[in-house]
Amino acid sequence: MDAGPGDKVSIPIRRDNRSKFEEKEFVVSGVLGSRQNGTVQKVFQGYVSQEFYESLYPEEMRFYAVTLRLNESLEKDSVDMEDNGYQLGRQMELKDLTGGKAVCRGELMGSFGSAPASWVITEDTFRKLKMTEDVTEILWVDCSQKDKESVESAIQELVAGIEHIELDSYDSSLKSTRTASQAMRSAIYALLGLLGIIGFFNMANTIITGAITRKQELGVLQAVGMTNRQLNWMMQAEGVLFSVGTAAISLAIGSPLGYAVFSYAKEYHFFGINEYHFPAVEIGVMVLIILLLQASLSFLLSRNLRKESLVERISYHG
Q: 0.90 exceeded by the pTM?
């Protein structure tokens, strides 16, 4: 990008890897010097104002790193500077983690988000620390899909037997994530199944209580000409009306609540939730199971009523 201070540029940005890109217009305030990042890729990094950053992220999602002058750094993580007791201009010091001695001191100069570390120092400051060991923490290896297996095998051979090195791949991370997601889904379905069973027993209790309470009324109807088949159909129709009404009310209330929970989870990045899917198949299966159970219950109730004589039912005063 060929731009200088004062120029307006339009850059596609997104809040995270799961969000869609949106075009935003910025005014270039300055250009940082180039630096090597240890890879063959070209990486372009930009910094935005704290005002823009806070307009993009809600307070609960903000992360800050700290930029310091030469010969200074910090040793404590910070999610929000003020909440953790840090203010601009505060005198800080860097300590040797092995000996506990102060290596350098300095002034806290500012904060910014989206940094790959908790605390940030300049490259010149790092060089003045005169580190003699390799401080590489993470090394990313990218390759084409056709070379994936051979590259992974070669890396495994390189790190075999070397302590303090952990090897991971996109495929294994994806597999772990899917396994965890499936385990959570199974647990949720098990909970929903248990709640469904409890709900069905409540519905069955209501239908059974209604049938027993109306035993005399049903006996009178049969005494004036209602057949056993008509009695069965009437109870089936009442059960279907009850089941469909219950499902309709549940969907009318549960669907908006479910979408609200999804929106909240997406906003705060719970479990990587990003896309909403209406469970039409699952709801259809649930309604079908409820109708089948209700039909079986109504049939059994009708059959039990027919076992009693009309005289017994008409004289019933439950």
A: no
